[in-house]
Amino acid sequence: MLIKVIIVITLLVIVGSLFSALFFLAKDKQGGERIVKALTIRIGISIVLFILLMIGYFTGVIGQ
């Protein structure tokens, strides 16, 4: 059950990172450094989510 909660929270953080990148895209008129940072964080969190999903599947916590 704990891993399912962690997966949902991770998904919410990914969506939050996407919206922050969208906000920076709309508001920043100068360089896109903050956009790149937000999207890089999203990619890292997505990799962590993939690993969590694999762990959950192979341990049987997430149904087949």
Explain the overall architecture.
- This protein is mainly α and 64 residues long.
- It has one domain.
- Helices cover 83% and strands 0% of the residues.
- The chain contains 2 helices and no strands.
- The chain has helices spanning 2-27, 33-59.
- The longest helix has 27 residues, at 33-59.
- It is elongated, with a radius of gyration of 15 Å.
- It starts with a helix and ends in a 5-residue tail after the last helix.
Short précis:
With 64 residues, this protein is an all-alpha fold. It is built from 2 helices and no strands.
Number of domains: 1
CA radius of gyration is 15 Å
Structural class by SSE content: mainly alpha
Number of strands: 0
Task: Report the span from N to C terminus.
Answer: 15 Å
Features:
64 residues, mainly alpha, 0% strand
Question: Layout of SSEs?
Answer:
Elements: H1 2-27, H2 33-59
